[in-house]
Design the sequence.
């Protein structure tokens, strides 16, 4: 591994997972041959590629013959390269003809994406490069813990503070990120919408509204103003648990700053009101003139390796490449033209990720599923139910590097190549398209996802249009994206090699790319940003007598997502060996719990068991569990799949639970 200190995004810095990622390339857990299961309940056994692919294609064909094309589902991932994400979307619509494709990004940045679209007419994580962050006067991080989830970015926070800028962190836990802040607002889970409105209320009352900006560059202010006025300080204090003076202090810091940024991450977004919550924070930026100007704006901290590009090129249920809408007749005509098919052959939008998983094997749901780049047995909400639905399928086909918990349920497992073994582009949170070049040959027996898609398409009767050369796929993606919001038509492998990546939109070969968006106009039809004008509402499930505590979930530094990759790395397992339940000493005392006690955490979905970790850094009405592990400590046994009506994001960050010592619970059960 070689570092590049001059690379502008991370200046050569990697986190521990990045530094140890090469261990997964040669891990003993690595799959090296296709596997098939002869019958449900039987064992997986090694098979040839021909046998495995024939079996997969025949199963897809059988499902579509018996129940129609939508009976085959496709589930992708935000870790896939742009080329794979594009090809997977095309594979679903052309080779399978199904409407039912979605991906794990729906669990990730979908609420920020919806709010971005509504407010600005365009969804790109950041409207400015990361290097602009230290240049702003006031940065607010809402539900983001980059010190653990994006460590190379922490230097930007440090530089901001060194320059005299202010950092405000909103998180129910005093995280490592909150430790860096000037002001930490430890709000109640699910109260970020009310908090933003409370801040806007103060901004209005204290005279920090930028009337000129509001008049010249926005629409809908009256509605937003009325919503904020209805969220007076005492009400917001009651809803958020943040003391009034601290709220006012935050409003003053942000309001009087000359420039300011708000960045949200999953803590604010993974709620059944995630879209509205982000909208309220955008409203705060718009009201204070902190958008569409240098060193100011709203942004979303992206999740997975290709969290941005993965949401642009068609693996989303309602989307065509170039971030086009599947419902837009002009977009359908354009993309169908590139694909050489009649636009009427393109399906309509299908089900969102959780809805797709929830209906597997049911009347009207998918009967066969192709899964590429996700491990929903661990990472989907209400995971026990999702596991049952996966069992109900006629055929589950999984392409993966390792036998992850979901692949272990499959009828056909296809071993695929990893990052260092194949070339492809990814797009980072800045909208910067980067080329990742192949450094190694895949091990004997392993194939690339693009090759797998070509072979499956061929067996399903589509013999052309699925090349396995990534550059050839990218060249087609360029054409398919031309004229769309995420326009890549001026980006080529050659251009990326010659630069440090090209920012979309980049509509032609001579266009320099767009590092900073919205400086002249927003991407809405009239060029104005739109206020969301939203009001607070409770979570789908609030604590009550039977389930008196909030559970929130998230990440730790040394593990990644469902852990499929990082749980194979010894150094990371030493640093973060297993699940735990974080709780406040006061809560622990009340429940008679001491450090390390095995706790049973119960929600309306089920019970998870993990040891107690007692810490003063969390609110005493809230417990926290990381979601990286399967088995009895799986956090997603508990989570609530209530969906945001716009983004279809599940409520990962909040459900009501009861906590007790596991032994006590066992004894009670034995007694009854
Ligand atoms: N180490 C590590 N890094 C990762 C990942 C990983 O798995 N491990 N995954 C990557 C991916 S895909 C993603 S999406 C990002 C996620 O990056 P983040 O969003 O930063 O990570 P999370 O831990 O999910 O959530 C952030 C914080 O939200 C807080 N929170 C919980 N509920 C609420 C709430 O209601 N309101 C507020 N304001 N805060 C709340 C939690 O306490 C937590 O500290 O990380 C990426 N980086
Ligand atoms: N409770 C709770 N649940 C959550 C979250 C939360 O905060 N709380 N966060 C949600 C979020 S933001 C996300 S992004 C999801 C992530 O959760 P998942 O979607 O499960 O993501 P990963 O664990 O990264 O799974 C990726 C799988 O694909 C494989 N893989 C990696 N690269 C490739 C590739 O190039 N090709 C193929 N074929 N396979 C590959 C890996 O080995 C792994 O098995 O979890 C969501 N679930
Ligand atoms: Mo994510």
Sequence:
């Amino acid at each position: 591994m070689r570092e590049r200190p001059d690379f502008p995004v991370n200046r050569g810095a990697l986190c521990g997972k990045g530094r140890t990622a090469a261990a997964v390339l040669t891990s003993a857990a690595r799959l090296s041959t296709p596997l098939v299961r002869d019958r449900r309940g039987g064992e997986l056994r090694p098979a040839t590629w021909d046998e495995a692919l024939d079996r997969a294609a025949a199963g897809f064909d059988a499902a579509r013959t018996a129940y129609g094309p939508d009976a085959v589902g496709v589930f992708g991932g935000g870790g896939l390269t742009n080329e794979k994400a594009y090809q997977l979307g095309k594979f679903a619509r052309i080779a399978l003809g199904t409407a039912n494709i979605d991906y794990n990004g729906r669990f990730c940045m979908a609420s920020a994406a919806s709010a971005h679209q509504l407010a600005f007419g365009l969804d790109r994580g950041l409207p400015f490069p990361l290097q602009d962050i230290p240049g702003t006067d006031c940065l607010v991080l809402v539900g983001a813990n980059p010190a653990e989830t994006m460590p190379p970015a922490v230097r930007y926070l440090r530089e901001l503070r060194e320059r005299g800028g202010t950092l405000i962190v909103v998180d129910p836990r005093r995280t490592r990120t909150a430790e860096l802040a000037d002001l930490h607002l430890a709000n109640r889970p699910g109260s970020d919408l009310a908090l933003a409105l409370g801040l806007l209320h103060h901004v209005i009352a204290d005279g920090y509204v930028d009337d000129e900006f509001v008049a010249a560059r926005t629409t809908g202010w009256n509605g937003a103003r009325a919503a904020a006025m209805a969220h007076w300080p005492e009400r917001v204090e009651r809803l958020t648990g943040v003391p009034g003076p601290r709220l006012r202090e935050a409003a003053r810091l942000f309001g009087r700053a000359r420039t300011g940024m708000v960045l949200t991450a999953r803590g604010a977004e993974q709620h059944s009101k995630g879209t509205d919550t982000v909208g309220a924070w955008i409203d705060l930026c718009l009201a204070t003139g902190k958008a569409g100007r240098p060193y100011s704006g709203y942004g979303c901290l992206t999740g997975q390796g290709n969290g941005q590009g993965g949401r642009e090129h068609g693996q989303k249920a309602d989307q065509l490449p170039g971030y086009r809408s599947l419902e837009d007749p002009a977009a359908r005509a354009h993309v169908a033209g590139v694909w050489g098919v009649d636009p009427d052959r393109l399906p309509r939008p299908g089900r969102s990720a959780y809805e797709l998983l929830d209906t597997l094997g049911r009347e009207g749901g998918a009967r066969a599923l192709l899964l590429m780049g996700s491990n929903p047995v661990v990472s989907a909400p209400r995971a026990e139910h999702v596991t049952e639905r996966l069992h109900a399928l006629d055929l589950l086909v999984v392409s993966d590097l390792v036998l992850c918990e979901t692949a272990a349920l499959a009828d056909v497992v296809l071993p695929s190549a990893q990052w260092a073994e194949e070339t492809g582009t990814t797009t980072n949170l800045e909208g910067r398209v980067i080329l990742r070049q192949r450094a190694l040959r895949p091990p004997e027996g392993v194939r690339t996802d693009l090759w797998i898609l070509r072979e499956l398409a061929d067996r399903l009767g589509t013999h052309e249009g699925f090349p396995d050369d990534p550059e050839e796929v990218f060249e087609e993606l360029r054409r398919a994206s031309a004229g769309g919001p995420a326009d890549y038509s001026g980006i080529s492998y050659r251009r990326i090699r010659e630069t440090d990546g090209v920012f979309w939109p980049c509509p032609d070969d001579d266009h320099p790319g767009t590092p900073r968006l919205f400086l002249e106009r927003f991407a809405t039809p009239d060029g104005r940003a739109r206020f969301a004008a939203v009001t607070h509402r409770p979570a789908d499930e609030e604590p009550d007598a039977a389930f008196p505590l909030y559970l929130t979930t998230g990440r730790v530094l040394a593990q990644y997502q469902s852990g499929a990759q990082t749980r194979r790395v010894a150094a990371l397992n030493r640093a973060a060996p297993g699940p735990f339940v974080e709780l406040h000493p006061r809560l622990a005392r009340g429940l008679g719990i001491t450090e390390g006690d095995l706790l049973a955490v119960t929600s309306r979905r089920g019970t998870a068991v993990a040891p107690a970790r007692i810490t003063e850094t969390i609110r005493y009405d809230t417990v926290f569990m990381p979601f990286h592990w399967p088995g009895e400590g799986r956090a997603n046994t508990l989570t609530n799949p209530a969906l945001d009506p716009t983004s279809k994001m599940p409520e990962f960050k909040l459900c009501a639970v009861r906590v007790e010592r596991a032994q006590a619970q066992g004894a009670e059960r034995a007694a009854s």
Remarks:
- The chain has a mean pLDDT of 96.
